[in-house]
What we know:
Blueprint lengths: L9 H13 L3 E7 L5 E6 L6 E6 L8 H14 L3 H4 L3 E6 L4 H6 L1 H4 L5 H6 L16 E3 L2 E3 L4 H13 L3 E4 L2 E4 L3 E4 L4 H13 L15 E4 L2 E3 L3 H7 L10 H5 L5 E12 L5 E3 L8 H15 L8 H25 L5 E3 H27 L7 H21 L8 E3 L2 H22 L1
Parallel strand pairs: 3-4, 3-7, 7-12, 8-12, 9-11
Antiparallel strand pairs: 1-2, 5-6, 9-12, 10-11, 12-15, 13-14
Amino acid sequence: xxxSAELPGVDELDAKCIEWAAAGAEVRCIGHSRGGRPIRVVxxxxxxxxxxxxxxxxxxxxxxxxxTICTLLDMLLRCxxxxxxxxxxxxxIPSIExxxxxxxxxxxxxxxxxxxxxxxxxxxxxxxxxxYSFPLHAGSYRFDEPTPEAQAWMLAxxxxxPDLMVSLHNADHGGAFCVLSRDDPELVETLxxxxxxxxxxxxxxxxxxxxxxxxxxxxxxxxxxxxLVGAAPGVWTAGQSSFGYTARHGTLGLxxxxxxxxxxxxEGQLPLDRVGQGRVALYAETxxxxxxxxxxxxxxLAMQDQLWHxxxxxxxxxxxxxxxxxxxLPATLMPATAVLSMHRIARTLPLRTLGMxxxxxxxxxxxxxxAAKARADLSRRATxxxxxxxxxxxxxxxxxxxxxxxxxAVQVGATLAAAQAVVTAA
Length: 426
């Protein structure tokens, strides 16, 4: 599997769609993003009875899946027996969030660099994400505002009726883990072995902000958002997940999440309560800046400004929630590498919100209005706070980039393993 120092942006994926069509694949537009960019499904021709749907950039700051889709499509078009021999027709959406991907492009071609990443970071609030804006009705809770991107995804799901759907996520830092929509013990065992074969750390803790039932080492059961809104009203303010939507078709859902950076191995054990140490002031300062930004919102914002505003406001809520979680962590001893990894994730998470704050206000004309002047001031203060963090050598000491080819190999292996499980069960 070849490596690339670059991750694919919108233009490269659009060009690849033309190449795939010329090679005989069916390429069709199933919708447009909020910004008018086409969202395409690429389907190599096949009369196989089972259907697989693979989604790239389910979050716009997660582009590794775009390279994975390029790899899988190239395997199919050259009739690689590892995939072409399955009784499965494959369908790919190279990028379900092309507008957001374009807003992250400044760091895609950059060598792995934490400062470049967070200084050019964009990720919308949950309710504006394709992955989490499917319709959700649970008790008195109603969410019926799917984004244009989610509407295109829904059309693909309902027209393809996939037996397998793979949503290709990646994380800033940590280890690789998988999420399944239902238990499959044999598949769980296979998935748990894949990361370390590629030199990628196995994450046995999962997403720190989600409550997921472990099915095996590094493999978790997807949360049920209908249950979540009933059990904790007000915590979730977005929609159903793609997994929840595909449940009507009996689809097996898989998320193979891989990291962009990981922790170097450290022997021994450390107390778990170290995760949040030293982060209280940074969390509070970042949340305070985000609160000021939230006060600059309102119905008069243009849609693009509203997306940035809502993402920043949600960042403040997430930081306060995680700060409370960190304060409640016990002093239980755990493997040192895992604790250090979680500590670094906790340390870098505010940089997402700070980066968006800095970008949102950077273009404001201080002569334009009082609100524009306030945004410019917020941008300046957020940039200063970020610069202070970047200046500390300890921010990156002990971490290393995960080679793109290794991350792609984990996602390819997980996708093929899930496909084989579906074929075997059919």
